[in-house]
Amino acid sequence: MTMIFGVPLAVFMGQLMLGLINGAFYALLSLGLAVIFGLLKIVNFAHGAMYMLGAFATLLGMRYLGIGYWVALLLVPIVVGGLGMVIERLILRRIAHLDHLYGLLLTFGLALIVEGTLINVFGVSGSSYPTPAALQGGFQLGFMFLPTYRAWVLVAALAVCLGTWYVIERTRLGAYLRAGTENPALMQAFGVNVPLLVTLTYGFGVALAAFAGVLAAPLYPVSPTMGSSLLIVVFAVVVIGGMGSILGAVLTGLGMGLIEGLTKVYYPEAANTVIFLVMILVLMLRPAGLFGKEA
Amino acid sequence: MSQAVEKITEYHDLDGAEMLRVSDLHAFYGESHILHGVDFDVKRGELVTLLGRNGAGRSTTLKAIMNMVGRRTGSIVINGNETLAMKAHRIPRLGIGYCPEERGIFASLDVEENLLLPPTVRSGGMSLDEIYAMFPNLYERRRSQGTRLSGGEQQMLAMARILRTGARLLLLDEITEGLAPVIVQALGEVLVKLKSRGMTIVLVEQNFRFAAPLADRHFVMDHGRIVEEISAAELPSRRDELNSMLGV
Ligand SMILES: Nc1ncnc2c1ncn2[C@@H]1O[C@H](COP(=O)(O)OP(=O)(O)OP(=O)(O)O)[C@@H](O)[C@H]1O
Ligand SMILES: [Mg+2]
């Protein structure tokens, strides 16, 4: 049997694969955080709750409305993203002129309310969501077995990340977003409806989180607390990558997933803390983050 | 997201009418009361200057017209439309281009993206080719990051990008500040061309030698008010008076 530093190849590749899947979720979530932070300057603490709402809506949609996975993949991000726009329009906009710390506290409070409400109704135990029929089974690659659904998650997450990067960096709409991030007042003076741009941007960031939630539903137990535990790690990823860089958020997300996977192979005890160790190191050596601009 | 740029507002040129009339304009930054009843008007096709010492309130007047300050009272009529209650993003769609004192070139955009950024507000703007013909430097550097340009090139970019939008009223704040004489001269030629195309221009200037031969009328500001109006014809006889008002 092929061994890599004393570990069977299949085990090694399996853990790497799991790490990459986790990394795909980190990438999707930190991308949304970066997009929101860019224009609104708010650290969106409700991001984990929106991810959880995405997974929950998928579960409840199937249970009570008979909505299948594929429809949910399209519908849930739109619905949860719409909820995000309502939150921005009715609540966040009112405090936009205050210190951005208030936005952080407010979104944190919102997350607690959403989570608490769902715990009250559904309890904390997780429910499982079936893998869609078309994505069951897997590929025998020789050195490892690759479940089809995991491959799909990786492809779908990367495609959405790449599409987002393209829109932001290569299109006119993205130019509005980048320019609005730098100087919103001047964009208004050019005739761009910046408040609307802000609402749509928040909605889009939230929709990304909800999309991640739909992808996660067949993979992890769906419970009201699934978002808050993940969000802590995602914030560490964001700190490592540096706020405000789109590509940085995606690459750091994937990279941190891989590092986590590798740690599971060689020193499983540290797997849950390794990202925080990297975060401390990065903060000491490059406080603005790997891809952040030095302020 | 394309609704972020709403439909172009159509309006009709009213021949011989005023392009801009500012009456009893007061403006505040938070608690500070900066403009204390500014009154002036600009006719279609005219080029007027706002002169004054540092801190007189010239930039604030342009910003107040664009609804970029805090509270405003009084009246600002643009091409027959009262704009005091208008949202900031609607004002440029009346056909106004604003070039801020600090230029406002975007670092995250390259030169061509900066040029293409301001949405079209009216038909009849200059094409990208025409703009590159007017500013050949910008063409050569069109793939450079906006803020990598020299000060003069950034100034040209800040001017050029509002010419594309079809704006007919240009508010230009200190466009010659800190530029070499050759570039100042080039900008003067650009202004002459724009005037011959029928543009209406409000020029905030420190460089009076630059502004004098271009302008139809001069307004002198002090302490947030217009204190004097001097026409181009009166200028030779009132030059000393003007110099003492400007403190030069
Ligand atoms: N953002 C602001 N907040 C508070 N006060 C301001 C602000 N901007 C300008 N001011 C004050 O408003 C007054 C007028 O400033 P303004 O920029 O209009 O002057 P100006 O005539 O353009 O002069 P210059 O550009 O030569 O300095 C000044 O006293 C200035 O200190
Ligand atoms: Mg000024």
TrEMBL record, chain A:
<dbReference type="GO" id="GO:0006865">
    <property type="term" value="P:amino acid transport"/>
</dbReference>
<feature type="transmembrane region" description="Helical">
    <location>
        <begin position="266"/>
        <end position="285"/>
    </location>
</feature>
<feature type="transmembrane region" description="Helical">
    <location>
        <begin position="189"/>
        <end position="217"/>
    </location>
</feature>
<feature type="transmembrane region" description="Helical">
    <location>
        <begin position="67"/>
        <end position="92"/>
    </location>
</feature>
<feature type="transmembrane region" description="Helical">
    <location>
        <begin position="104"/>
        <end position="129"/>
    </location>
</feature>
<keyword id="KW-0812">Transmembrane</keyword>
<dbReference type="GO" id="GO:0005886">
    <property type="term" value="C:plasma membrane"/>
</dbReference>
<dbReference type="Pfam" id="PF02653">
    <property type="entry name" value="BPD_transp_2"/>
</dbReference>
<keyword id="KW-0472">Membrane</keyword>
<feature type="transmembrane region" description="Helical">
    <location>
        <begin position="12"/>
        <end position="35"/>
    </location>
</feature>
<dbReference type="InterPro" id="IPR001851">
    <property type="entry name" value="ABC_transp_permease"/>
</dbReference>
<comment type="similarity">
    <text>Belongs to the binding-protein-dependent transport system permease family. LivHM subfamily.</text>
</comment>
<dbReference type="GO" id="GO:0022857">
    <property type="term" value="F:transmembrane transporter activity"/>
</dbReference>
<dbReference type="InterPro" id="IPR052157">
    <property type="entry name" value="BCAA_transport_permease"/>
</dbReference>
<keyword id="KW-0029">Amino-acid transport</keyword>
<keyword id="KW-0813">Transport</keyword>
<keyword id="KW-1003">Cell membrane</keyword>
<protein>
    <submittedName>
        <fullName>Branched-chain amino acid ABC transporter permease</fullName>
    </submittedName>
</protein>
<feature type="transmembrane region" description="Helical">
    <location>
        <begin position="149"/>
        <end position="168"/>
    </location>
</feature>
<feature type="transmembrane region" description="Helical">
    <location>
        <begin position="229"/>
        <end position="254"/>
    </location>
</feature>
<keyword id="KW-1133">Transmembrane helix</keyword>
From TrEMBL, chain B:
<dbReference type="GO" id="GO:0015807">
    <property type="term" value="P:L-amino acid transport"/>
</dbReference>
<protein>
    <submittedName>
        <fullName>ABC transporter ATP-binding protein</fullName>
    </submittedName>
</protein>
<keyword id="KW-0067">ATP-binding</keyword>
<dbReference type="Pfam" id="PF00005">
    <property type="entry name" value="ABC_tran"/>
</dbReference>
<dbReference type="InterPro" id="IPR003593">
    <property type="entry name" value="AAA+_ATPase"/>
</dbReference>
<keyword id="KW-0029">Amino-acid transport</keyword>
<dbReference type="InterPro" id="IPR052156">
    <property type="entry name" value="BCAA_Transport_ATP-bd_LivF"/>
</dbReference>
<dbReference type="InterPro" id="IPR003439">
    <property type="entry name" value="ABC_transporter-like_ATP-bd"/>
</dbReference>
<dbReference type="GO" id="GO:0005524">
    <property type="term" value="F:ATP binding"/>
</dbReference>
<dbReference type="GO" id="GO:0016887">
    <property type="term" value="F:ATP hydrolysis activity"/>
</dbReference>
<keyword id="KW-0813">Transport</keyword>
<comment type="similarity">
    <text>Belongs to the ABC transporter superfamily.</text>
</comment>
<keyword id="KW-0547">Nucleotide-binding</keyword>
<dbReference type="GO" id="GO:0015658">
    <property type="term" value="F:branched-chain amino acid transmembrane transporter activity"/>
</dbReference>
<dbReference type="InterPro" id="IPR027417">
    <property type="entry name" value="P-loop_NTPase"/>
</dbReference>
<feature type="domain" description="ABC transporter">
    <location>
        <begin position="20"/>
        <end position="248"/>
    </location>
</feature>
<dbReference type="InterPro" id="IPR017871">
    <property type="entry name" value="ABC_transporter-like_CS"/>
</dbReference>
